[in-house]
Design goal:
The chain is α+β, with helices and mostly antiparallel strands. It is about 20% helix and about 25% strand. Strand 12 and strand 13 form a beta hairpin. Keywords: Calcium, Cell adhesion, Cell junction, Cell membrane, Cell projection, Disulfide bond, EGF-like domain, Glycoprotein, Integrin, Magnesium, Membrane, Metal-binding, Myogenesis, Phosphoprotein, Receptor, Repeat, Signal, Transmembrane, Transmembrane helix. GO terms for molecular function: C-X3-C chemokine binding; collagen binding involved in cell-matrix adhesion; fibronectin binding; integrin binding; laminin binding; metal ion binding; protein kinase binding.
């Protein structure tokens, strides 16, 4: 991002360059620019200037700094110490004054320490609504002075109290202007004093009994409408420092009422249209301009209370709590307490509100110059860190606690007048502040050593500063060699056309005073160059989507390749290591290595190193016949062995060498001859010599043993016969048992006839007398 900012800024001087960004530097080397580069090319980020061979000692890059002018330590003070200090001798914030030198875009950060002092003096002014509804409250406030003095001794030994009262503007319709009502605005037999806007009854004093005496003499007054004119009174209390008696200590304003408030614009009801002027108008302790100036606005009150370091406590009844809580959110360093109907709890309310206000510190700063920003970071009690708006404040601070803030101030631009500015930072409600003087770096140091009307700038037509010419009014060009009034555009353009062509600066630049100043690209790394901007460093051939294949640099649209690379896109490697085959040969001896890739000359071979041959027999099958004929005088080539098989060296061994025994590739082979005998050998290429190690003995299978075979056959036949007989016998037994079981079953189921035999004749003959009657 910063690279783009610097190069795109088109800075024409060192001063312009350093205001672009804190990352930008200006090269003051006179010979830094190349042909076609404009003065603005001197402005770039520091890393790019280094890459472009600018001597680091000739890079102008001023930095901001912080100088502490006043750094008085915070005061360590205890109430039981006999020696008392004046308020002016107490320090709660450190440092007190700094000088910051700012460069555009470079923040300067400093630490600010705050410690809440012990036994710090307090001024309290009690501002009370004396309209008729506050009659019972006045009775309880009459003894407030001595009671509050006694209670505040716990917090501080230096306490002062004052009293003031308010009612309303003394015009219609806020009060009745009839003569009788102007004397006694109350009805019935009530004795009330004349209405008034604001009265300073008692200047701040350390005499509590004096407070009681004067308050006891006060009388209630009255008005017509419900809202009161309290804002007029608050304004006068804030701005009339001398009449009130404010010291540069903790200032508390207690605002006691049981009603709402009028604010800016309400004065129109009484014909008052002039805005409140925010000035003191007390005469004889009475506000005299209430009929002339409108009520102040809330923003106006906020400003005056802050300017005079006054912390406000709103002591209001329960009914108006919501209204005053909203008001509290608009007024920094303010608190709201619930006042009982007769103000009997006012002392506790004041002490609780004071403890709440004093336990929080909020930093604010004065008006910032144009282009200057400020950020806060708080490191509060127990290491709690706050940022953003929370970075301005710390809460729950007890007496003697110390907190710190990291404050960063940054300038986005150099102010037009270039003069120092002063801002103040202070904790709200405290009289102490930090003064910060801002100096701005608007130009480079080398500019002060510039040579006016230098001969280096074409006959003295410019000031030579920071390695470049700063032209006088009316002069243009890199060396101020041209006048805007004397040179015609046609003459200038002619010098910017290459070979009398039609394109000015090759359409890649602008013709300035007859010289091409090349355009800048979106990417600062991409540069046009050349007398006519005809060259660039980004339009060279690419490989793998990389400029010059990533192995070279682009100069004037041509690749300048790194060592071991060649080609128009530097995509051709001269390294041959990627072409080595397993046997150590380049492309397996069957191709050439081009740009790091094998080109196989034998079409049968393929692969990255020409070692793959899908149609070729294996090494073992290829050399089987030759090994067989030379080692064992057998095989298909035994008749032509001398002619066909002398291309390798044959070595007979009892045991073949293992691959770990050799430093060259070795192939183990196992082949079978026509007699079913196995022979073993290895094939290897060492130093271009082909070697074959063969086991000198064949591994043939032994002949068959006849007797065991015949005995086995006979035994097999006998065993098979016996097995068949056993199976037949078993089947017959099973069949017989089944038949017998069937017979038994039929026998059991047979039923015989029990009648007489029809052919049977008994041997006994019985004759019956027909005349016999059984008598």
């Amino acid at each position: 991002r910063d690279q783009c900012i610097c190069i795109k800024a088109n800075a024409q001087s060192c001063g312009e360059c350093i205001q672009v960004s804190e990352a930008c530097g200006w090269c003051t080397d006179e010979n830094f620019l190349t042909v076609g580069e404009s003065k603005s090319a001197r402005c770039d980020d520091l890393e790019s200037l280094k890459k472009r061979s600018c001597d680091p000692t000739k890079v102008e890059n001023p930095r901001g700094l912080i100088q502490i002018n006043k750094n008085k330590p915070v005061t360590i003070r205890k109430k039981d110490v006999p020696e008392k200090l004046d308020p002016e001798q107490i320090t709660q914030i450190q440092p007190q004054k700094l000088t910051l030198t700012l460069r555009s875009g470079e923040p300067q950060t400093f630490d600010l320490k705050f410690k809440r002092a012990e036994d710090y003096p307090i001024d309290l002014y009690y501002l009370m609504d004396l309209s008729f509804s506050m009659k019972d409250d006045l009775e309880n406030v009459k003894n407030l002075g001595t009671d509050l003095m006694r209670e505040m001794q716990v917090i501080t030994s230096d306490f002062r109290i004052g009293f003031g009262s308010f009612v309303e503007k003394t015009v219609m319709p806020y009060i009745s202007t009839t003569p009788a009502r102007l004397i006694n605005p109350c009805t019935g037999n009530q004795n009330c004093t004349s209405p008034f806007s604001y009265k300073n009854v008692l200047k701040l004093t350390n005499k509590g009994d004096e407070f009681n005496r004067l308050v006891s003499r006060q009388q209630i007054s009255g008005n017509l409408d419900s809202p009161e004119g309290g804002f007029d009174a608050i304004m006068q209390v804030a701005v009339c420092e001398e009449q009130i008696g404010w010291r540069n200590v903790t200032r508390l304003l207690v605002f006691s009422t049981d009603a709402g408030f009028h604010f800016a614009g309400d004065g129109k009801l009484g014909g008052i249209v002039l805005p409140n002027d925010g000035k003191c108008h007390l005469e004889n302790n009475m506000y005299t301009m209430s009929h002339y100036y409108d009520y102040p606005s809330i923003a106006h009150l906020v400003q005056k209370l802050s300017d005079h370091n006054i912390q406000t406590i709103f002591a209001v009844t329960e009914e108006f709590q919501p209204v005053y809580k909203e008001l509290k959110n608009l007024i920094p360093k303010s608190a709201v307490g619930t006042l009982s109907s007769n103000s009997s709890n006012v002392i506790k309310l004041i002490i609780d509100a004071y403890n709440s206000l004093s336990s929080e510190v909020i930093l604010e700063n004065g008006r910032l110059p144009e282009g200057v920003s400020i950020t806060y970071k708080s490191i509060c009690k127990n290491g709690v860190v706050g940022t953003g708006e929370n970075g301005r404040k710390c809460s729950n601070i007890s007496i003697g606690d110390e907190v710190s803030f990291q404050i960063s101030i940054e300038s986005k631009e150099c102010p037009s007048h270039g003069k120092p500015e002063v801002i103040t930072i202070k904790p709200l409600g405290f009289n102490e502040e930090v003064e910060v003087v801002l100096n701005f770096i608007c130009d480079c140091q080398c500019a002060s050593d510039g040579e006016p009307n230098s001969e280096k700038c074409h006959e003295g037509n410019g000031t030579f500063e920071c390695g470049a010419c700063k032209c006088n009014d009316g002069r243009i060009g890199r060396l101020c060699e041209c006048s805007k009034d004397e040179v015609r555009t046609e003459d200038l353009d002619a010098n910017c056309r290459k070979d009398n062509g039609t394109d000015i600066c090759s359409n890649n630049g602008d013709c300035v005073c007859g010289t091409c100043e090349c355009k800048k690209r979106e990417n600062p790394a991409e540069i046009y160059s050349g007398k006519y901007c005809e060259c660039d460093n980004f339009n060279c051939d690419r490989s793998n989507n990389k400029l010059c294949g990533g192995h070279g640099r682009c100069e004037c649209r041509k690749c300048i390749c790194d060592a071991n690379y060649t080609g128009s896109a530097c995509d051709c490697s001269l390294e041959t290591s990627t072409c080595l085959a397993k046997n150590g040969q380049i492309c397996n001896g069957r191709g050439t290595c081009e740009c790091g890739v094998c080109k196989c000359t034998n079409p049968k071979f393929q692969g990255p190193t020409c070692e793959i041959c899908p149609t070729c027999p294996g090494v073992c099958a290829e050399h089987k016949d030759c090994v067989q004929c030379r080692a064992f005088q057998a095989g298909e080539k035994k008749d032509t062995c001398q002619q066909d098989c002398s291309y390798f060296q044959l070595i007979k061994v009892a045991k073949l060498p293992q691959p770990t025994d050799q430093s060259f590739p070795l192939t183990h082979c196992k082949e079978r001859d026509a007699n079913d005998c196995w022979f073993y050998y290895t094939y290897a290429i060492r130093n271009d010599n082909k070697e074959v190690y063969v086991v000198e003995t064949l591994e043939c299978p032994p002949g068959p043993d006849i007797i065991p075979i015949v005995a086995g056959v006979v035994a097999g036949i006998v065993l098979i016969g016996l097995a068949l007989l056993l199976i037949w016998k078993l089947l017959m037994i099973i069949h017989d048992r089944r038949e017998f079981a069937k017979f038994e079953k039929e026998k059991m189921n047979a039923k015989w006839d029990t009648g007489e035999n029809p052919i049977y004749k008994s041997a006994v003959t019985t004759v019956v007398n027909p005349k016999y009657e059984g008598k």
